Amino acid sequence: MNARILQMVVLGTLAGAVAWLSWWWPRSPALAVAGLLLWCSLPGLQLGLQMLLMRRVARQRGVPVPSWRAQCVAWAAEWRLAIQVFGWRQPWRASAEADGWPGEAGRGQVGVVLVHGYFCNRAIWAPWLRRLKAQGIACAAMTLEPAHGASVDAMVGALDACVRRMADATGRAPLIVAHSMGGLVVRAWLGMLSAQERLRLAAHVVTLATPHQGTWMARFAHGLPALDMREDGPWLRRLGPPPAQVPFSCWWSTCDNIVFPAPVAMLPGSDGHRLDDVAHVQMVFDERVWRFCQGLRERLQAGHAPCSG
Questions:
Q1: Residues 212 and 178 sit within 8 Å (Cβ to Cβ)
Q2: pTM of the model
Q3: pLDDT tens digits for 103-160?
């Protein structure tokens, strides 16, 4: 569903650019080029506005504010990633990278289940899937459905099916890594399981920029599932704290342009990891996050308790 919506957005953007050039080029080449540059800059301008709002809200709340240099670097990196992820990978390559389901040789290993966030699909995890499969690690990423117009609770079915298949294939509870809204889907799913099922299906949950306490940006939401992510909203109050049987590690950034003000991406009592130089989508591709998850999976594989950071 998200792939089709993004395809229409990309094609509509290209059609608008062609129409503008076709109309203005015979009349004023300079105006045609200027308008095209402005058209192409809209994603970056939107990201810049989000980051300015983040700084303003952070100052009002008295929470950490990133340096201007770090924020500018994060803004540039997020703009580049937005073009790659939302302009190409997710609209057109959602199924290009296959999951790495294990055979009999994979029994006994700790697999990895990857959960995307709002207005995304499984394609955002393509680099993770490639790297995990290259190391022979069982891995899978689902696309959460329904994508729009339904509560976060409605998305747990796709996650449940994927996690159960991984646990059955490996004989071990997997490591679950979730970005943004995906972490809330994981929490909603865990809340529907018995204590015994939680132990069998989730060894550890790592959340990246998840609005565990809601996000200021959700005040502009007019429909589900974004409404579920409002600060102190009714859905989050009903969700309650995560179950004690499953440990959480929460990564958050003071440069996050979507989930702010920091540290709303933290859960009380969880293993917290702060960054000061990455934006929202950028966190999925941060090498520090990757190394942490690699080390955590190795400790889980060896049967050691995860270390707090």
A1: no
A2: 0.95
A3: 877 799 999 999 999 999 999 999 999 999 999 999 999 999 887 788 999 999 999 9
